[in-house]
Amino acid sequence: MSPYDETTSAVSSSADGEDRAVEAALRPKDLGEFIGQERVREQLSLVLQAARHRAATPDHVLLSGPPGLGKTTLSMIIAAEMNAPIRITSGPAIQHAGDLAAILSSLTEGEVLFLDEIHRMSRPAEEMLYMAMEDFRVDVIVGKGPGATAIPLELPPFTLVGATTRAGLLPPPLRDRFGFTGHMEFYAPVELERVIHRSARLLDVRIDTAGAAEIAGRSRGTPRIANRLLRRVRDFAQVRHDGEVTREIAAAALGVYEVDERGLDRLDRAVLQALLKLFGGGPVGLSTLAVAVGEESETVEEVAEPFLVREGLLARTPRGRIATAAAWQHLGLTPPPAPPHTSLPAQQDLFGDAAEG
Ligand code: ADP
């Protein structure tokens, strides 16, 4: 098997070049258009309304959750709802405090600064951010060694929107400086169906209810994946059929892209198959499992396992990885009979009259 390349999987949750080009056109523009995430939407709506009421800049906002759930979209909505410009950058792009100082000092009043992957910022930049968030001020260091001096620089009030895949990775002093934290959840299938219908309308794709449901069920609770699968299904419908997306066409198209009815891709299934067929359902160590599928341990652990665990198909135990009953069922295989010592003794045995039966 060729090494698995996450960027070519139709169900990868990170954005590829095509996603970035299309996503701009598909992003909801205001809170009313944003589907699902009811709790975050309501909380955020209150924060924004209160800020508008006071004619003030909204508190800093932290959005946490896996990729592709709408964190960038929400940051743009915050700016749009406040009628403010937005600047977009990311933690890995800010390696030196000077990089951050340059961005902060060029912000205009009320501007929204979206900082994606905020947990990956360098330490000195992070410390500069504390002061900027709290006092709207940074100290710019001029010169080196004993002659270095800190020149305080006033900043206009701005709103920082930080995004992170895990809020727990943020140092508490940074976390505490956000006035509001929104935890983004995976989307329910019915919500993804709405996302798909909306995107289909914008992309001028004809799709029926069953077609949208079929795509939603394979989208791993993630709008970015739903939008991508919709585009692949659209291609198939246009090339091989008359362009309309039905359940049969969606299923056939996603079969071509090796995305099964539960959203598992080639690697996910290879891992499950090895676990079931070669190791009888486990327990088996991660590195052994990785060798069996011809992948690096990290790829199996970071790319395949989180979704398999979330789906209740695989469990991580201190003795190794084990398959659940649902995994056997999903691959249409029969689990081996339980070893004798784990089965309950038959009723007759308890009374010592088993021989008669
Ligand atoms: P993140 O920043 O969390 O990785 P994005 O905001 O870039 O995710 O969203 C990815 C794609 O999914 C975008 O094209 C966006 O249009 C779509 N999307 C995300 N959330 C929603 C939603 N609630 N309603 C409709 N589309 C959404």
UniProtKB/TrEMBL annotation:
* E.C. code: 3.6.4.-
InterPro entries in the cross-refs: AAA+_ATPase, AAA_lid_4, DNA_helicase_Holl-junc_RuvB, P-loop_NTPase, RuvB-like_N, RuvB_wg_C, WH-like_DNA-bd_sf, WH_DNA-bd_sf
Q: Where is the composition biased (Polar residues)?
A: 1-15
Q: Which UniProt keywords apply?
A: ATP-binding, Cytoplasm, DNA damage, DNA recombination, DNA repair, DNA-binding, Helicase, Hydrolase, Nucleotide-binding
Where in the cell? Cytoplasm
Q: What reaction does this catalyse?
A: ATP + H2O = ADP + phosphate + H(+)
Quote the HAMAP family the UniProt record gives: DNA_HJ_migration_RuvB (MF_00016)
Could you say which protein family the record assigns here? Belongs to the RuvB family.
Please identify the protein, giving its name as recorded: Holliday junction branch migration complex subunit RuvB
Name of the gene: ruvB
